[in-house]
Amino acid sequence: MSQTRTPCRTRRPRQSSARQATEKAVYRIRNWREYNQALVNRGSLTVWVDQEALDAWLYRGPNRWGAQYICSDAAIRCLLTLRAVSHLPLRATQGMAASIFELMGLDLEVPHYSTLSRRAVELAVGLARKSEGPLHLVLDSTGLKVYDEGEWKVRKHGYSKWRTWRKLHLAIEAETHGIQAAMVTEAGVDDAEMVEPLLKPIDREIAAAAGDGAYDKRKVYRVQEHRTGTILIPPRSNARIWKHADAPGPPLARDENLRAIRRSGRKAWKRESGYHMRSLAETGVCRMKVIFGDHLASRRPECQVTEGAIRGRALNVMTHTDSGVYVRGATYGAAQVERISLGTRHTAR
């Protein structure tokens, strides 16, 4: 009686020795006392309702048609920031501010929640940038929910209503992790289309900018010629040279990147060019969603733009007050030590 043999499973190929030798860097915080206190300070009301905001609480601008403003833009920014950090609706934000002023004994007008909603439409929000010198930017975008159902309900019963998303575009400084620009658009807006609007409000020199393959478009490189010194974007796998060597004029930065990839390979180009700093954009997106969530509280598109800028400003305040000192090495006790304090890096051997 013949026996049927079951086909044996093919073993997965072993990783190459180079892959096995690659160890993920380990980060350890060395000043837990100071870092812990910085995290505690994030919940302090004096960080978000400071004396500077209280001094500029009342409106002192020019008169306008109709009813005059009572509270200044600084007051509206202060309360909207408190709302974003505390994850409160507008009505609860008004109640919290009123109770804070009552406990502090301050005779200040608290804006009505409807006033907060109306004033947020045209509110100018600065991002509280504090870095100096040329910028090294990393660009990325992420989706934020406006209307959606819970994941558990969708898994059990499927979708039952239309979902609405917005896209948050970020320009983050690699050295300090500060948000240099933050814009909220419709979900279908192309990432490359938002590069020029992101860089326009930045009035400092941009030494380099890095982004993923979604930014490999001509419109991005046209902006790069006028604003940035170095552009680090990996061309797509089927990329072709745009401007050959016999063409007049200087070579394109994108073509030089493509030639380097053809010579040494994509992984070597990423390592040698410093492209891996783009992963800091993923870190910034993760921090934004962990702290503020993946939903937008505002419903009007204009207010959603303001909410995105408010979140970027609040995240910068948290970044500037943090003082974590990290040790980086391939393994514990490695020779290379990298000290990151208040966004500055010092390498010692």
Which structural class do the helices and strands define?
Answer: alpha/beta
Structural shape? globular
- The strands making up the biggest β-sheet line up spatially as 4-3-2-5-6
Q: Total helix count?
A: 14
Q: Report the CATH C-level class of the largest domain.
A: Alpha Beta
Mean pLDDT: 83
Low-confidence stretches: 17-21, 329-349
Strand content: 15-25%
From the N-terminal CA to the C-terminal CA, the straight-line distance is 72 Å
Rg calculated over all Cα atoms: 25 Å
CATH homology superfamily name of the largest domain: Ribonuclease H-like superfamily/Ribonuclease H
> How can the largest sheet be summarized?
5 strands, mixed
List the helices and strands in order.
HEHHHHHHEHEEHEHEHHHHEEE
Helix content: 25-40%
What number of structural domains do the residues give? 2
* CATH fold-level label of the largest domain: Nucleotidyltransferase, domain 5
CATH architecture name of the largest domain: 2-Layer Sandwich
Number of strands: 9
Protein name: Transposase DDE domain protein
InterPro entries: Tn903_transposase (IPR053172), Tnp_DDE_dom (IPR025668), Transposase_Tn903 (IPR053520)
Organism: Tautonia plasticadhaerens
Domain Transposase DDE: 41-149
